[in-house]
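Async update (no meeting this week)

Hi team, since we skipped the sync, here's where things stand on the single-chain job. The sequence we agreed to prioritize is pasted below, unchanged from the tracker. I ran it this morning and attached the output directly underneath so nobody has to dig for it. Comments welcome in thread, and please keep replies under the output.
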Amino acid sequence: QQAVKLAPRDPDALVELGKALNILARYDEALVALHTARGIRSNDAELFTAIGIAEASLLRADDAEAAYRHAIALRRNFSLPYFNLGILLEQGNRLEELEALLNAARSAGVDMSDLTILDALLLRRRGELDAALKLAQGAPIFLPIVAELRAELIGQAADRLGDPVTAFAAFTEMNRLAAERPAARGVDKLEYR
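Output:
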């Protein structure tokens, strides 16, 4: 916030403020900062990804999808908008579109290790639980939310495969990770200045 006060037209400062406000679950405020930045610099894939995150968090899936697709168009090999769009597609039960998105990411040269969890989600939704569990267990964690998502997927797959010990451990980890999120902890605003 200090950087924005000193340079209110600095798009980098506005994007960073928007990202911090997203972390704090202050999505409407994040969108104000991010749309201000968009008015200054409209060719930034990270900016549109952050807009998508705020829109998705406000349950505006269509706006989030448009922002993620715009980010992908701006930077075809940037994994984060593919990841976030993939989550939206999976949640919307749009599995064919998710598979097409993963294929497009491969063709664009995206680091597919960042999208391993999406492949695992797709396998789970198709009922290939053993393959989904194995893939999820080896999925790298490139964002904190991936660790939480991975733990949930492992728990669900293990439970359906009849492995209560693995399922319980995974769900315990998922809950621990969820409780550690800044918004869940009620983090003081000063921590993200």
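Quick observations from my side:
The chain is about 75% helix and 0% strand.
Confidence is low (pLDDT under 50) at residues 185-193.
Reply here if anything looks off.
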